[in-house]
Hints:
Blueprint: E1 2-8, H1 23-34, E2 39-42, H2 51-69, E3 77-84, H3 86-108, H4 112-119, E4 121-128, H5 133-136, E5 144-145, E6 149-157, E7 174-175, E8 182-188, H6 205-220, H7 249-261, H8 263-271, H9 305-314, H10 316-323, H11 340-353, H12 355-363, H13 388-393, H14 400-403, H15 407-431, H16 445-459, H17 465-485, H18 491-502, H19 514-534, H20 539-562, H21 569-589, H22 594-620, H23 651-657, H24 661-670, H25 674-679
Parallel strand pairs: 1-2, 1-3, 3-4, 4-6, 5-7, 6-8
Amino acid sequence: MATFTIFCFGTWDSSSKTHDIxxxxxxxxxxxxxxxxxxxxxxxxxxxxxxxxTNSIVAIDRIIEWLSSQNNEEEELNINLAGFSRGxxxxxxxxxxxxxxxxxxxxxxxxxxxxxKIDKLKLNMFLLDPVAGLSDKKDKKARxxxxxxxxxxxxxxxxxxxxEFKPQDMTRLIFEDLSKTQVSLLPMYGNHTDSTKIKNDKxxxxxxxxxxxxxAFLTKHGTKFVDDKIPDIIKNKKQPVALDAVxxxxxxxxxFSQYHHEKHGYEASGKMIQFDDSIPIPRKxxxxxxxxxxxxxxxxFFVNQLxxxxxxxxxxxxxxxxxxxxQKDSRFPNDSLSRxxxxxHELRIIKNNHPALFSRLKENGFIRANGTLTSRGPKGLNYxxxxxxxxxxxPDLVPECIKNVTSKKKAMSRLSALEREVYQETFRxxxxxxxxxxxxxxxxxxxxxxxxxxxxxxxxGGKDVNQKNKLILDTLEENYxxxxxxxxxxxxxxxxxxxxxxxxxxxxxxxxxxxxxIVHILFSALKKSVGFIGNLGYIGGGxxxxxxxxxxxxxRRINENIGDIxxxxxxxxxxxxxxxxxxVGKIIENSFGLKPLTExxxxxxxxxxxxxxxxxxxxxxxPAKPIPKAPVARxxxxxxxxxxxAFAQPAKVRAAHRPTNALxxxxxxxxxxxxxxxxx
Length: 680
């Protein structure tokens, strides 16, 4: 295996920096020392990020040079990209530029040897909290994960709240083909930089997990480090200290158990005011916190899928009983569908080997202090964990029973990919709206949200994986047809149609009735008029929204930072001021009550329009014609038996007396017959 590794620094960071270094600094230094010809390092851009595109173009030249130098035709070729912050976004730019370069090379067909190498190339990315900044976050080249990417892991910091640090999360990233790209999106505690180094002894296990994850991911795909060891970790801004890589799923589970113990420290770190904050405005919770269940099942207990899957692997009985509703799991025939006394026995092992995990189970109401079960029956979702993130990042820590490819495992993988595709596409629909409509939801946002929730309920309910896949596709098809009958021109309809076609379902084609079109136009015009007036010509409403949001944010920030009021009169006054700011800001943000009223009226007009148009289209819809069946081939009829000569007239005589077709036709027209003529 030959591997070329590119490390991309974040804003203002570089390989020459000697103070306040981070995870990229340590990993690139160890990799360059071991394999300088197989490593390329990109220094971070300035605050505006204008260097990102130039850096990605230079990186493509280096990749082509490296590919051209590889002469072993049998060897597997890998490109590994790792970056933090804007460096992670640079990795996405590089992937898109490489995809464009490959298309260009195939069109010209000038270098057949290089094209053969490209055909077997595998591109892998590890992105640490990718942040594109204020200007670049909507750039498609900073969002699209092209088909050429084999695997991508993204770590996202939950507790960062600065406005200019919005991440490329599930709502912004666009995966061209999830059937060809393995994806792990991993929320983490803390602010933007809390996983890149150990800042103090109160928050140290996030960086330890990130360090181990990046090392396992890169080494799996062929990157080499000095002495084949994980690079030393940065601790308390001092000299790096040695770190041992995890050797088992149990060790990884220990790290996560200790990580949860530090949760409040990471939350406080996210709220901390820093002098180097580039935009001095109030912080806002990242939107990924509003829909964590689409990143990890049971988000109230697990921070990400690695956390969840390591529990599944180490303690399958307990996990199956508490989080999989005690379903039968063919991969763990002796550790699923367990009796309570068997679960209690495993809980005793957890208490001895993972006391922090045992305490969390107790705190979350799963067990009593003595280790007995609090409920009479099993709990959790009707969803068997496929452990795809562990297989992607830590394959050596996964037991063979999970790795073995079976028909059920394939069905589980299809379900996981279909789920992710629906979540990603519906979030993308809600995210991609007009610049002038930044303060308002898209017209079918409520529909996209309802589809997402329904798909989640199907994925985590029931027990048969194949049935879940069918239910999800049936639901998408039902919603798509509903939108067709409502004459919807929404992009959501196109998105649903594309998903159906990708999974072998036929998208319904229907011509709208003229009456339905007229009704749709009239109601749409009424809805637009109400929206324009109620939102003060949109521009006026947008200005009020921005002003109100800023005032509300100031009040929220004041209350966040004063902490516990107690009996402190100064804090009480500040709290009252902060609350007044929040209330006033909320009123202005909603255009003094006009915005919610306008949204309500617009929604009602839209609902009436959709119902009427759908009724008209269904009333005039022509039933689908059945597909004509091919004629069945039948054997020729047997020949007629020979007629006895004694009773038959000669053939010539019979022919002479037989009326011709023309005669028959004439008889039919005149109303006469041969017998009638004979009588005459």
